[in-house]
């Protein structure tokens, strides 16, 4: 049972890290922006993050996944991290949190 609790806690810690990473063109973190579709943590504490970008031509398409992997790997309990980019479904403003919409004046 403690394994499941640890995995859940690690998932929450990963989300905290994701909330420190900002899109360079939009002053909102990537989590609230809705770019993170899922975070998977297995029993070996390997992490896989499924995410998208605001557009396929995003200028940080090369650097952002690397930054995410490095910051997530910096957590003591994380053994490895991998970021997978998908455009299915494509990102839309509907994926943003209420907080992000408020920050950008969309509410």
Automatic annotation (TrEMBL):
Q: What is this protein called?
A: MIP18 family-like domain-containing protein
| Start and end residues of each MIP18 family-like domain | 12-84
Give the superkingdom in one word. Bacteria
